[in-house]
Write a structure and sequence with these properties.
The chain is an alpha/beta fold. It has one domain: HUPs (Rossmann fold, 3-Layer(aba) Sandwich). Helix content is 34%, strand content 17%. Strands 3-2-1-4-5-6 form a six-stranded parallel β-sheet, with helices on both faces. Helix 2 packs antiparallel against helix 7 and helix 3 runs parallel beside helix 5. It starts with a strand and ends with a helix. The relative contact order is 0.19. Its EC number is 2.7.7.18. Catalyzes the reversible adenylation of nicotinate mononucleotide (NaMN) to nicotinic acid adenine dinucleotide (NaAD). GO terms for molecular function: ATP binding; nicotinate-nucleotide adenylyltransferase activity.
Length: 192
């Protein structure tokens, strides 16, 4: 089983995340994509994050009808902030027969050399890189790397930051959020 891991805060999960995850699950050699809900990203402030269980619930709502996608809260039980290498090693121990690949945007690849144990990360897993609007080109040290593959996934410039701003200002987020997620956000008056 080849599992793609798409890490994120998913604050909130939106159609850009879903289109990307579905594309990777159905247009690459992956069998499935798991969305890894991160309680805290070491590179982002946590003061704007909804509670992790709200974010996990929204991901579950968003992917409920898609058998190609899964979700994991594995990082909820790990030390914070979460580091990708620690999560990957834990998952490899828990699922020894699975092959894992990391899914990341070009913008993350530009800073990969700053990640904890990034060399080990590249030894342990393949990295599937998708284009991001305005990203710098792939750093020279990662060009032609045998474990890094650039995937021509659809280019979408949708951000959770923009969606949170719209919600705070009472503007419509229709078509940006999956319908069940939008209903949950509105019912709980999240991001207001």
């Amino acid at each position: 089983m080849r599992v793609g891991l798409l890490f994120g805060s998913f604050n909130p999960i939106h159609v850009g995340h879903l289109i990307l995850a579905n594309y990777m699950a159905t247009n690459t050699t992956l069998d499935t994509v798991w969305l890894v809900v991160s309680p805290q990203n070491p590179f982002k402030p946590s003061n704007t994050l909804l509670h992790e269980f709200d974010r996990l619930h929204m991901v579950r709502l968003a992917i409920a009808d898609n058998p190609d996608l899964g979700v994991t809260d594995i990082e909820f039980r790990m030390p914070k902030p979460s580091y990708t290498i620690d999560t990957l090693i834990y998952l490899k121990e828990k699922y020894p027969t699975y092959q894992f690949a990391l899914i990341m945007g070009e913008d993350n690849l530009a800073t990969l050399h700053k990640w904890k144990n990034y060399e080990q990360l590249l030894e342990e897993a393949e990295v599937l890189v998708y284009p991001r609007p305005g990203s710098a080109k792939v750093p020279e040290q990662f060009q032609n790397h045998p474990k890094i593959q650039v995937v021509p996934a659809p280019l979408l410039d949708i951000s959770a930051t923009f969606i949170r701003k719209c919600l705070k200002e009472g503007k419509s987020t229709r078509y940006l959020l999956p319908e069940p997620v939008l209903e949950y956000v509105e019912a709980k008056k999240l991001y207001r």
